[in-house]
């Protein structure tokens, strides 16, 4: 035990002595009263015809006699009297107990514990009464129990330790009231926050301390230590960090990685902890030969091997093996082969540093799932948890599928704790799956103010509930207003429509622009709805219908004739689809990911517009230089092909500063230079390529600051109508723009901020350059 732990234990022991001083004195009195009993036990026995109860106020005499359990009219000895005494003391009802034989009468004198009048918590500031009261099991109008009061004090102390205040102490005190009542007060000394001054590693060669610290949930204290709570020491978090570190190394081929020790030392002079992980990385392994074998006549091993995706020469990762096992077991189910189990057998080749994998197909035990019991969900409906299981009652029991279901339940992020265990069912071939969850808040309401170089100052309010009415649905509302614009929307998402992996989405929106300095105003009102479902392991297909009315009004005489011709209101009714392929989460390579998207929209299902819009995006990310540097690349584009009439300014593309850095909103593309205000007209086609690198710049990582460089190239072009003012044709040809710059990334509690400093290398004379911008960073 450390010195700190010894001090806390001493304080608690002193508190317990103070609370139960009367108990100790009563016990001595009782022992004195019963001291002759051992002598009597050798010489004689007793027989009582009557039991007299004295000193009781609330508890009935018959109840006390029943607890003592002394038989009347039967011979009893000292051992029996001592057992009766212990039962009365252990009942927790009495401050003191005395047992005294008086001839044929057994006299039992008791002093009852007082009744709790009320319970108060004093001295707490960092944790509110609402947070601490649920931890207290002592109850007003119930008998005061000093043992329970100590347990309650320990629970409150633990809550402070979880909040990083390991020096906190809680002392239970009682205040005497009339009628044998007491007020129970928990006096809290919160102490200061015990921050984590340094997290270090010993034995790491492949990865730097900086990279490994990025893996852990525990963070060092930094510039925002008063806001970021993860820099406080929480002992329970260490176990989670051990698992995160192990998974990190295993997924990168280090099959022999192990943590030999984790030490945490408290420096009293600095009021902070120093945590050190002692690790052994071992060698990095690749996959060797991948084979399959079967002991079952009805199973063709080669057929099962064909569904495996692991290939020789790739970096070893347990995730690849787990997914191959899942594919093979799914194939067995499709072929009607129940209880077929796939056991990966790994053979080590130290000379080549490879691991050979043989998938052995065997017959598993004939065990079925009897039922799935779900407990602890107060708001969330059972079906929300149950649908995360691919197994239902009566199905063959598969431990791997149960583990995967537990991970899916945790991934919902509805629960702070999820325990999934199995127990014996009503028969030897039956198991019960027990799911115990602890719910956590899933809603958020936020208010904020912002400033944009594009739209000026603005206000925003948003509400989001990810588990609406406990049904696993999402309901979100947002309203954002700037100097000359206002956007509002409401969104509803049902992730399991009709109980299937079919995501339904409905969104309504209302957007306006109204600026005294603008040449025209716009108003767009509409809704969209659609479904999204998986079509492969990493692929999804979305189908969408959209109906919107866009109005262009208050067009100035000084604006472009092109926009003047577009004034009025038009309704667009469209159907669309989007295919996506995403390996960012489910990919086997932990350092790289790819996102591919392709979609088309046909407008002309009623309404006033008829066109086909095509969109495409390809994005990739990878880490290099021992994962210290992150490289990202994105190429995207879109095209509108009008089938009837001309496109309008509300339909065409305008590149934002997120899509093309270094230029303002509506800062590039076709522009009517003959118009007085040189209006940006947008284009029917756009294409952009973005490249960037993010890397450490020597600032301690606890400050959350990194640097980056970027280069963008792209353009917007093509109009259906190019008749400018005074008969001058508007130039809508393709003109390449390019820009380079540096970035500063800063991870803050309000979100990841990004500061961009840019310089345009290629631009047109009429383009509007933006050399500095602050945005909320969007990561790959």
UniProtKB/TrEMBL annotation:
<keyword id="KW-0472">Membrane</keyword>
<keyword id="KW-0677">Repeat</keyword>
<dbReference type="InterPro" id="IPR010827">
    <property type="entry name" value="BamA/TamA_POTRA"/>
</dbReference>
<dbReference type="InterPro" id="IPR039910">
    <property type="entry name" value="D15-like"/>
</dbReference>
<comment type="subunit">
    <text>Part of the Bam complex.</text>
</comment>
<protein>
    <recommendedName>
        <fullName>Outer membrane protein assembly factor BamA</fullName>
    </recommendedName>
</protein>
<dbReference type="GO" id="GO:0051205">
    <property type="term" value="P:protein insertion into membrane"/>
</dbReference>
<dbReference type="Pfam" id="PF01103">
    <property type="entry name" value="Omp85"/>
</dbReference>
<keyword id="KW-0998">Cell outer membrane</keyword>
<dbReference type="GO" id="GO:0009279">
    <property type="term" value="C:cell outer membrane"/>
</dbReference>
<keyword id="KW-0812">Transmembrane</keyword>
<feature type="domain" description="POTRA">
    <location>
        <begin position="114"/>
        <end position="191"/>
    </location>
</feature>
<dbReference type="InterPro" id="IPR023707">
    <property type="entry name" value="OM_assembly_BamA"/>
</dbReference>
<dbReference type="Pfam" id="PF07244">
    <property type="entry name" value="POTRA"/>
</dbReference>
<dbReference type="GO" id="GO:0043165">
    <property type="term" value="P:Gram-negative-bacterium-type cell outer membrane assembly"/>
</dbReference>
<keyword id="KW-0732">Signal</keyword>
<comment type="similarity">
    <text>Belongs to the BamA family.</text>
</comment>
<keyword id="KW-1134">Transmembrane beta strand</keyword>
<feature type="domain" description="POTRA">
    <location>
        <begin position="46"/>
        <end position="113"/>
    </location>
</feature>
<dbReference type="InterPro" id="IPR000184">
    <property type="entry name" value="Bac_surfAg_D15"/>
</dbReference>
<feature type="domain" description="POTRA">
    <location>
        <begin position="367"/>
        <end position="440"/>
    </location>
</feature>
<dbReference type="InterPro" id="IPR034746">
    <property type="entry name" value="POTRA"/>
</dbReference>
<comment type="function">
    <text>Part of the outer membrane protein assembly complex, which is involved in assembly and insertion of beta-barrel proteins into the outer membrane.</text>
</comment>
